[in-house]
Amino acid sequence: MTVFGLAVAIGAVTKYKPYGVPDHRRAEYDAILAKLSSEAKAIAKAEKSKSPVAKITQTEFDFGLLDPGTSGAKHDFVIYNDGQDELLLTAAGSSCKCTVAKIEDRIVPAGESRPVTLIWNVGEDVSDQYEQVAFIETNDPRNQPSN
Hints:
By secondary structure, this protein is of the alpha+beta class. It has one helix spanning about 25-50, and strands at about 55, 75-80, 85-95, 100, 105-110, 115-120, 135-140. It has 1 helix and 7 strands; from the N terminus they run αβββββββ. It starts with about 25 loop residues before the first helix and ends in a 9-residue tail after the last strand. The strands form 2 sheets. The protein has a 4-stranded antiparallel sheet, with no helix packed on it. The mean pLDDT is about 80. It has a domain at about 55-140: Immunoglobulin-like (Sandwich).
């Protein structure tokens, strides 16, 4: 008596379109996904680096006189990377909801710089002077927040 066994694996792969993305915007969607994937890999690499050096020449800016209710006052602060590895910038909150830091490109290659835009929306409360702060974290081991 001879017994013969046969194992067969059958599978199917179905690729669905992303929900909510119309066909005419699919290329744009795919480009954004590719950029996010590339950025995620670069961020993971930058988080492990030991020799980025964050430098900033201007740490304060006076917006001057602004009317109450003014929105969208902006100023760019430039952060330089004087190190040998990529510097990672992360907006880490602010002292008030009216102040927002915007970082277009979070990864700063060695020897380059990136702007960090501070956006301030003046409230309706009237005061002679305001002072707000935005916090930017980096992977520079010499510039870490103290606990």
